[in-house]
Design brief:
Helix content is 65%, strand content 0%. It has 173 residues and is mainly α. It is elongated. The chain starts with a helix and ends in a 22-residue tail after the last helix.
Length: 173
């Protein structure tokens, strides 16, 4: 009797081993736990037109952004091409936004600085950052930083904010 029990256990163990090694995918799939599928809820965005008028607070925001991007590019010019590209694009964008908030006379005074920054952007875009170009660009950036900071600080521009936005028809990219 002991012999029959041992033989039965041997064959049962062998059968379990063979079924496990056979890898019957359908049998495994039947007994494995399935993850619940997450139903994705579509996002709906309600578009609305905001009635924003030029204000001193908006001018100050663009001024502060410009100061920070200008400082960053002055400190890091030539170290990282992508960082330089992002910085100079943000500088030009913020200066243009500042000009769009100012009355015509003050915007005309800011335009030469924007033109100088565009020239630096062309140098950086061409990936032509030789030592001479880097020194020239850094000189233009530092001088522009001092001049714009001195001439277009929010305290000085307090009375020069236009009542409505200037329409930008000319997009220079």
């Amino acid at each position: 009797m002991k012999k029959h029990v041992m033989r039965f256990l041997y064959f049962a163990f062998l059968a379990i081993l063979l079924f496990g090694a056979s890898g019957c995918e359908a049998l495994k799939a039947k007994f494995t736990r399935k993850k619940a599928k997450d139903a994705k809820v579509p996002a709906y965005y309600q578009l609305r037109k905001y009635d924003i008028k030029p204000s001193m607070e908006l001018y100050e925001k663009h001024y502060v952004f410009w100061v920070n991007w200008q400082r960053e590019i002055i400190a890091e010019l030539g170290n990282n091409f992508k960082s330089d590209m992002r910085s100079i694009r943000e500088i030009v964008s913020n200066l243009e936004d500042m000009a769009s908030l100012l009355v015509e006379e003050e915007a005309a005074r800011l335009e030469p600085h924007i033109t100088k920054m565009r020239k630096v952007r062309v140098i950086i875009d061409k990936r032509n950052m030789t030592k001479a170009n880097q020194t020239r660009s850094l000189h233009i950036l530092e001088r522009g930083y001092r001049e714009v900071k001195r001439g277009f600080a929010p305290k000085k521009m307090k009375n020069n904010i236009r009542p409505d936005f200037k329409e930008n028809i000319d997009v220079d990219e």
